[in-house]
Amino acid sequence: MNTSIYDKTAKGREEIATRRDGLAPRLRSLLVLIDGRRTEEELLRNVAGLGLTIAAVHELLAGEYIVLSTSYASMAEAPAEPPAPEPAPELAPAPPAAAQVQQFQSVYQFYNQTIKSTIGLRGFTLQLKVEKASSVDELRQLRAPYLEAVQKAKGSDTAAALALQLDRLLGFN
């Protein structure tokens, strides 16, 4: 059982926020899950459905997106020090579960494939918004502008057909 715990570096947090380095979507999904609290075993269990292994963790380490924060074994060996008072916890959004990661990737791919083929160059700004999105909720907010652009470019029938597909991916149906 591996009890290593990883945390994002400044470079890793910047990659999540800006996608500067263009990290592969599967690796980005793993990077999003790394929070300095979950063990390596938990992380790998959550991304097993994406086909990611320990090699993906090593790739993020080599790219300096994450750093080994601690492990339970080293915590047990460390001399006992009085714990520092913790600041009041802020309400943070729950970390994405494997199902949410899969949903995000499905909606993200749907937008990427259909914006180019249906809207063309007029969809460039919308495509940038999809690239900046970091959650399913942010992708949901792009539904109305996306469907409006498709309707202008290809008509109501195409927009209605794509709306059904998109709604199924977003969990509206």
From TrEMBL:
Residues 77-96 are annotated as: Disordered. Residues 80-96 have a biased composition (Pro residues). This is Proline-rich protein. It comes from Rugamonas aquatica.
